[in-house]
Amino acid sequence: MEEKGDLKVNFDHDPHAVIQDLDIVISKLKKILGNQWVSTDYIDKVAYGKDYWLISNQMTLDGKIPAYPDIIVWPQKTHQIAEILKYANSHKPPIPVIPYGEGSGVVGGAVPIKGGIMVDMKHFDQITINAENMTATIGTGVNGKVLERYMHEHGFRMGHIPQSLHASTVGGYVAHRAAGQFSGKYGKMEDIVKSLEVVLPTGEIVKSKFYPRASVGPIVDRIFLGSEGTLGIVTEVTCRIWPFPEKQAGSSFVFPTLQDSLNAIRETLQANINPAVVRIYDKPETVRHFGSTEKKSKDKLMVIFVFEGSSRLVDLEMTITEENCLKHNGEACSSRPVDHWFETRFNVKESSDFGPYGLVFDTVEVSIPWDKANELYEAVVQEILAVPGALMATGHASHFYPTGVCFYFTFSGVPKKNQDYLELYNQCWDAAVRGTLLKGGAASHHHGMGLNRTRWMQLEHGEEFKLLKRIKKLLDPNNIMNPGKLFSQREEGSVYLTQRSSLDAKPKGGL
Ligand SMILES: Cc1cc2nc3c(=O)[nH]c(=O)nc-3n(C[C@H](O)[C@H](O)[C@H](O)COP(=O)(O)OP(=O)(O)OC[C@H]3O[C@@H](n4cnc5c(N)ncnc54)[C@H](O)[C@@H]3O)c2cc1C
Fold first, then answer.
1. Which pLDDT band, with edges at 50, 70 and 90, does 359 fall under?
2. Which of 123, 154, 262, 368 is found 20 to 30 A from 93 (Cα to Cα)?
3. Contact predicate 511/42, CB 8 Å
4. Hey, whose CA ends up nearest to atom 5 of ligand 1?
């Protein structure tokens, strides 16, 4: 690795973000938090300069750093966050503040491209269960695996099981409106979170009230679900929980065509049958994941179901699902594909393997109503494969609704002569998102926009984006919260990245 002074960042700090009176700011933060919870150590700055976005990861593998915060803090109480935000907001010039969970985001959401204060939420780790209401009040720094294990130990199920369960927090789930593997039964974050506490960029603490339902004007707290750290720091959420399921069972089927499998699942969900897990793998992914597991999968698409709940309900849901699958040309398989799915569901070896060899690789999850689902799949695969240098585009459908479906595409490629890694990467992304938006789909289903996708915010929201920007201005007049994400367009974010010819700018503030 290069020497400290020579380390290079890939995102220039905005000159306004350089903290001239750094020593004064540090001593103020130490006064608020105590000396041990404030760091400007070199190693911490490097560690908090990236998330799990393929680009920030690749830069790190290349010995570069994508960005770095000026200061890292570990608050323990909500009022401390309030004081930090009040101070950062009133400082001249205002100081950027970035909330941080565990950095498992895959779109650059936590990458501190403007420097500033990184607020690690790990100490917000309390969990309180109300068994009568079937709710849990949870600090947003709680790790997903810790949370689910705690629920199991107490006889409950939270049911939010993202593939990144071991390495992500509740705050990150709220910020990206995440979706777990079992979301068919337990819902996505917007279904799970019933109320929350948030510290606004100006330092006010706002807590929404928990109730089963109400008709008391607009639901204000919803604006913070999916706000990606740009509107405030969420400190606590009250969530719906469930009894630990009496029974869990799985089934799998192979189908001759994607449309057949979509029809079977659409009819099942529209009949209000809710398997916890549903996955359709296209033919290439069926070969990749199940080729050696299930002989019947040859030239077919594999579909996996997992059901959870009371024993009688699980049996009934399985029966109706099976009827729909058989009706639409599905053929029942052995238990092996479901077992295999359980064994490999947290395996992300592929993405770790490819990066070091310079192979461009990523995943793109989008959503689309049923009536365009098959078309969308075809369009996105074709759009990606038409990019010079792209070698592979495959997909599976991973989340379902009575109204539509989420497709999760995987692409890879090798840059051609005169094409660099980033160029090919961005062209593949553009192709996937273009294919989706042209068909009327949403640019992201659950990973969020972050740095990578912020360039599609205007196109995605249309007129609504103006309203969103007004809300941002009102809540965060000095744009201190996670600047460069969600609300930036051409001047910042990933477009800024694509416009650069060099990836090795020197840091202006110095490390
Ligand atoms: C291998 C792998 C598998 C994945 N599988 C899934 C999956 O199945 N489903 C899914 O939805 N996602 C998945 N993800 C993406 C990622 O795990 C989620 O986006 C997760 O929600 C991020 O959580 P985090 O705590 O790591 O957040 P971070 O990466 O630390 O931050 C993400 C964003 O949230 C903001 N933020 C964090 N905490 C707060 C807070 N308290 N208040 C306000 N803003 C905050 C940050 O500023 C940033 O913008 C996967 C990622 C990986 C690497």
1. confident
2. 123
3. yes
4. 163
48: left (phi over 0), alpha (psi -120 to 50) or beta: alpha
Name the least confident of 4-18, 386-400, 496-510. 496-510
Distances (CA, A) of 148 to 154, 156, 182, 242, 279: 10, 8, 12, 11, 22
Residue with token string 């950062």:
88
* C-beta 233 within 6 A of ligand 1: yes
Q: What does the pLDDT read at residue 503?
A: 26
Q: Is 230 in the pocket of ligand 1 (CB under 6 A)?
A: no
For a pLDDT cut of 70, what percent of the chain falls above it?
A: 92
CA distances from 284 to 197, 341, 410 (A): 44, 16, 11
Given 3.20.20.70, 2.30.42.10, 3.30.43.10, 3.40.50.1000, which CATH number is that of 4-122?
3.30.43.10
| Ligand 1 atom nearest 121 alpha carbon | 41
Furthest C-alpha separation in the chain: 71
> How far does the chain reach from its first CA to its final CA, in angstroms?
15
The residue to mutate among 51, 60, 164, 363, having the most atoms of ligand 1 within 8 angstroms of its beta carbon, is 164
Residue 209 is predicted with a pLDDT of: 97
pLDDT above 80 for 185 = yes
What per-residue confidence (pLDDT) applies to 10?
52
Please state, in angstroms and rounded to a whole number, the distance separating the CA atoms of residues 233 and 73: 13
Topology annotation, domain 130-243 = 3.30.465
Contacts of 447 (CB under 8 A, 6+ apart): 105, 106, 107, 176, 365
The mean pLDDT of 65-81, rounded to a whole number, is: 95
**Lowest-confidence segment of 17-21, 31-35, 160-164, 483-487 by average pLDDT:** 17-21
CATH of the structural domain 247-344, one choice from 3.30.565.10, 3.40.50.300, 3.90.1150.30, 3.30.70.3450: 3.30.70.3450
